[in-house]
C-alpha cells in the first residue's frame, strides 16, 4: 500500500516515514506544491499532511486535493493549539486529525481506520477464498492451516489485486503502487514476482485465481 507524507519539517517527515515504512511504500514531499503534484500524479491509499507547511496552509491543501477530485483518505497532523479547529479541517476534506507528536501504534491504527472507511472494494480484515485464508492485518496467508511464505512484494501484489477484485490492474499501476518511487526496477519485475506468487498461491493450475490480461496487466476473480 502506498502513502504520501507532505511536511516542510524534515524531522516530522523522517519521523512519520519511519513509523509507517514497514507497512507502506512511502513518498515524501517537503512542500505543498510538490505534494499536490504527486497527489495528482499517483494513486495513494492515504495522504498525511503536516499543518506546518510554509507555502500553503494545511486547510488549503485539503480543499485543493478534494477540488482536484482526489479521493485518497487524508490524515492531518495538527499543533495542539489547532485542536479546536478539527471540525473545520474535517468539513474541508480531511478524514482524520491527530495532534503532534503522534505515537506509532496510534498513527498506524488511524491509517487503517480511514482506509477501511474509504475502501470501495474488499475492506474486511480477513478473507477466505477456497482453501486460502488471508489475514490482512497480520499480512499472513494460509492454505488450509499451513502458512504460505511470501516475500513482502509478493504479498503486497496479491493484496492489492484482491482489494481490487474484478478490476483489471495495469503493470504500470502495480509498479507505481508497490515499488518505491525512484527505484531502479527491471522492466520484467512485475512478471517475475507474479510468476513466483502464482506458484505459491495457485495449487491447482487449472483454477487460476490471478488472471492475465494480455498486453495490460492482471485481475483477480473468484
Instruction: Indicate how many domains the architecture comprises.
Output: 2
- Order of helix and strand elements from N to C terminus: EHEHEHEHEHEEEEHEHHEE
Structural class of the secondary structure composition?
alpha/beta
Strands across the major sheet, in which order?
2-1-3-4-5
How large a portion of the residues is in β-strands, by DSSP E? 15-25%
β-strand number: 12
Largest sheet: 5 strands, parallel
Task: Give the CA-based shape.
Answer: elongated
Query: CATH superfamily membership of the largest domain, which one?
Result: Response regulator
Q: How much helicity do the residues have?
A: 25-40%
Question: Top keywords for this entry?
Answer:
222 residues; alpha/beta; Rossmann fold; Arc Repressor Mutant, subunit A; 2 domains; 4-stranded antiparallel sheet; elongated; WH-like_DNA-bd_sf; DNA-binding; phosphoprotein; Two component transcriptional regulator, winged helix family protein
Explain the overall architecture.
By secondary structure, the chain is of the alpha/beta class. It has two domains: about 120 residues, 3-Layer(aba) Sandwich (Rossmann fold), CATH 3.40.50.2300; about 100 residues, Winged helix-like DNA-binding domain superfamily/Winged helix DNA-binding domain (Arc Repressor Mutant, subunit A, Orthogonal Bundle). The strands form three sheets. It has a five-stranded parallel beta sheet, sandwiched between helices. The two termini are about 20 Å apart.
Amino acid at each position: 500500500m502506498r502513502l504520501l507524507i507532505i511536511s516542510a519539517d524534515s524531522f516530522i517527515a523522517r519521523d512519520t516515514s519511519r513509523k509507517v515504512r514497514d507497512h507502506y511504500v512511502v513518498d515524501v514531499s517537503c512542500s505543498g506544491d510538490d505534494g499536490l503534484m504527486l497527489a495528482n500524479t499517483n494513486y495513494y491509499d492515504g495522504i498525511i499532511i503536516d499543518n506546518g507547511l510554509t507555502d500553503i496552509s494545511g486547510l488549503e491543501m485539503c480543499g485543493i486535493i478534494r477540488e482536484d477530485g482526489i479521493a485518497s483518505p487524508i490524515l492531518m497532523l495538527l499543533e495542539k493549539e489547532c485542536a479546536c479547529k478539527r471540525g473545520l479541517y474535517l468539513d474541508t476534506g480531511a478524514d482524520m486529525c491527530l495532534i503532534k507528536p503522534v505515537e506509532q501504534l496510534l498513527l498506524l491504527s488511524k491509517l487503517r481506520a480511514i482506509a477501511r472507511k474509504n475502501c470501495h472494494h474488499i475492506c474486511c480484515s480477513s478473507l477466505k477464498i477456497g482453501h486460502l485464508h488471508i489475514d490482512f492485518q497480520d499480512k499472513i496467508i494460509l492454505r488450509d492451516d499451513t502458512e504460505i511464505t511470501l516475500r513482502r512484494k509478493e504479498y503486497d501484489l496479491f493484496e492489492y489485486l484482491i482489494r481490487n477484485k474484478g478490476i483489471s490492474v495495469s503493470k504500470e499501476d502495480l509498479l507505481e503502487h508497490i515499488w518505491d518511487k525512484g527505484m531502479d526496477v527491471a522492466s520484467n519485475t512485475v512478471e517475475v514476482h507474479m510468476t513466483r506468487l502464482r506458484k505459491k498461491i495457485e495449487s491447482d493450475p487449472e483454477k487460476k485465481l490471478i488472471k492475465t490480461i494480455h498486453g495490460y496487466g492482471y485481475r483477480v476473480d473468484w
